[in-house]
Write a structure and sequence with these properties.
This protein is α/β, with parallel strands linked by helices. Helix content is 30%, strand content 24%. An 8-stranded parallel sheet has the order 6-12-13-14-15-16-18-20. α2 packs across α6, α3 packs parallel to α4 and α12 crosses α14. The radius of gyration is 23 Å and the shape is globular. The two termini are 29 Å apart. 51% of the residues are buried. It comes from Terrabacter terrae. Pfam families: Amidohydro_3 (PF07969). This is Amidohydrolase.
């Protein structure tokens, strides 16, 4: 049996009965005693003096796409471009580094940040992509900007009908512009494509996540990521704790294999099934009750409600928890209706709404009544605040309403939605506490009545994030809990009132998973 006594003057435990301590005794990866009891019982244990100004529980990203994030490491990053011209030049420079025939992919372009915020077209992309396929994802992942070669190889013409839950944008003469929204993106899957093995990229991604204080994640991506994580785990190379979701299209496969949420061990577990109810704000495909300002449409329903209900019940009856993406107020209403049907069958399924960005006030109490977790990403608020004002305006909605949900006794779990946002959880903590961007704007925070305290934000990134996938054995530094902890360079609680902007710049010095050192800054 291995026994380690961890010492530090400021250890925040996350345990309401004893929030602060100065010692943790860990045996075989589990905290067995704290404080004076730990020191007394750990007289013969190996002692580790933890560095930095503060020690706290390891953080859990409740919503992250690690395959996307890993693949993005090999792509061009277009997030910071401020014009179409700047975007095209970055694409051109990246294309020149690629071998012949390799796709231009990902990109994470964001036309809402361009000086002229107009979506691009295939003709512009043709100028810099040469004879290779180009299919560049928007920052929110809900729109593809494709070149003419991609459309041609996929057989997308003026006569191609819009798929259910998707849209092929067309110009005034009816020709496809190259913009493919929601399920229309899947039309490109018929094009043959060779990709490098995922595992090496995931290993690099794992290092990055550990370096920012994440000790566990709920991964939203597909079967390739599941296979790579299973291989890492079998080889003893998985240092993160991973709860692995199943995508909608793989639900029948999961059922046939006998997957049930919670199966696995302390390191790698079967998670929920992920469904989509609508699109995203940046792509103007969030499903709203009223049209966006300046637009005729109310967004896109990713699947008809009858299908959503059928799929949700199938998953729940098969022993799989359910998490459903909903951005717009109408999408949230419909998902809650589907969850009401689950509860009517007295199924104890864990239910989450992913994002819950814009919710009718009348629907907020339904989260509590149906025991639905609001799985939210604080950095979405600070990234979207100007866009939300522009296309949603002052209509009466609970928008990025963490305080409203908490006051209604709704469980709130936090994550990043990386690579849509940066996976660094301290960026999310800063956004939750200040509702400001990194530059300190807007002064006082956007809709500041929705701010939460630092303790509440950390609770959402630790205890509730774990609970939202059925884990109560990790998230606190208390007896009986897994010893996942991070040592950081500043005392966040001392900064909360005086200089909360510095929370965002927190540097992780060490990350421990199950009492083992998983990352140390050199």
């Amino acid at each position: 049996m291995s026994s380690t006594l961890f010492r530090h003057d400021r250890i925040w435990t996350g345990d309401t009965a004893r929030p602060w301590t100065d010692a943790l005794l860990v045996e075989d990866g589990v905290v067995v005693a704290v404080g004076a009891d730990a020191v007394e019982a750990g007289a013969g244990a190996t002692t580790v003096e933890l560095p930095g100004a503060l020690v706290m529980p390891g953080l859990h990203d409740a919503h992250i796409h690690t395959e996307w994030l890993s693949r993005d490491l090999s792509s061009v990053d277009l997030r910071e471009a401020r014009s179409l011209e700047e975007t095209l030049e970055l694409v051109r420079e990246h294309a020149d580094t690629l071998p012949p025939g390799e796709w231009l992919h990902s990109g994470r372009w964001n036309h809402n940040r361009w000086r002229v915020p107009r979506q691009p077209d295939r003709h512009a992309l043709d100028l810099v992509s040469g004879d290779r396929v180009a299919a560049l994802s928007s920052v929110d992942g809900h729109t593809i900007w494709a070149n003419s070669r991609a459309l041609r190889l996929a057989g997308i013409t003026r006569d191609t009908p819009d798929p259910v839950g998707g849209e092929i944008e067309r110009d005034g003469s009816g020709e496809p512009t190259g913009i493919l929204r929601e399920s229309a993106q899947e039309l490109l899957q018929v094009i043959p494509r060779d990709e490098s093995p995922l595992r090496p990229w995931l290993e690099r991604c794992q290092d990055r996540l550990l370096s920012v204080g994440l000790t566990s994640i709920t991964d939203i991506d597909g079967e390739d990521a599941r296979a790579a994580y299973a291989e890492l785990h079998a080889d003893g190379a998985l240092r993160l704790r991973v709860t692995k979701c199943t995508r909608d299209g793989d639900l029948e496969l999961a059922i046939s294999e006998g997957r049930r949420s919670g199966q696995g061990d302390a390191r790698f577990r079967v998670g929920p099934v992920k469904f989509f109810s609508d699109g995203a704000l940046g792509s103007h495909t969030a499903h709203m009750t009223e049209p966006f300002l300046g637009h005729e449409g109310c967004g896109i329903a990713a699947m008809p409600y009858e299908v959503l209900l059928e799929r949700t019940l199938l998953a729940a009856r098969s022993g799989l928890d359910v998490i459903t993406h909903a951005i717009g107020d109408e999408a949230n209403r419909l998902v809650l209706d589907s969850f009401e049907a689950v509860r009517a069958e007295e199924l104890d399924t864990l239910l989450r709404i992913e994002h819950a960005q814009h919710v009718r006030p009348v629907d907020v109490p339904r989260f509590r009544a149906l025991d639905v977790v609001a799985s939210m990403q604080p950095a979405h608020c600070t990234a979207d605040l100007e866009l939300a004002d522009e296309i949603i305006g002052p209509r009466r909605l609970a928008s990025y309403a963490w305080r409203t949900f908490l006051d209604a006794h709704v469980r709130v779990a936090f994550g990043s939605d990386a690579p849509v946002e940066d996976p660094n959880p301290f960026y999310g903590l800063h956004a939750a506490v200040t509702r400001q961007r990194a530059d300190g704007q807007p002064l006082g925070g956007w809709r500041p009545e929705e701010k939460v305290t630092l303790t509440e934000a950390v609770h959402a990134f630790t205890v509730v994030a774990h609970e939202s996938v059925g884990r109560t054995d990790v998230g606190r530094l208390a007896p009986g809990q897994l010893a996942d902890l991070v040592a950081v360079d500043r005392d966040l609680w001392a900064l909360e009132q005086s200089a909360s902007a510095e929370i965002r710049d927190t540097v992780v010095l060490q990350t421990w998973v199950g009492g083992d050192l998983a990352f140390e800054r050199s």
